[in-house]
Write a structure and sequence with these properties.
116 residues, 3 domains, extended
Length: 116
Amino acid sequence: MSFADWSGGLWPYVALVLFGFLPSEAWRFLSIFLARGVDEGSEILEWVRAVSTALLAGVVANILITPSGALASVPTGARLAAMGFGLAAYFVFRRSVIGAVVAGEAAILAAAWWFS
């Protein structure tokens, strides 16, 4: 491989792996080894679950209320309806996260198409 190959098409992918994927994965592997002896019902894991749930809820709320990019062209009511559709699909598909995500994505794509 020449330098032209790296500077042209492959460099963004290498940068993504080096700066996006590997730092995150290092912490994940470290947590596996550190959490081996921790009881699942311990207070520290309950706290970690609560913090991660709050962070996820904050990210979802931020995307719904103050979106950027193409999602900003979809009205707030349609974004909230798509989230509700995904939530309903979660229960319809027997608590399937994949089913809920696919249904919510389909609803937001349909709303984006409808309002464009």
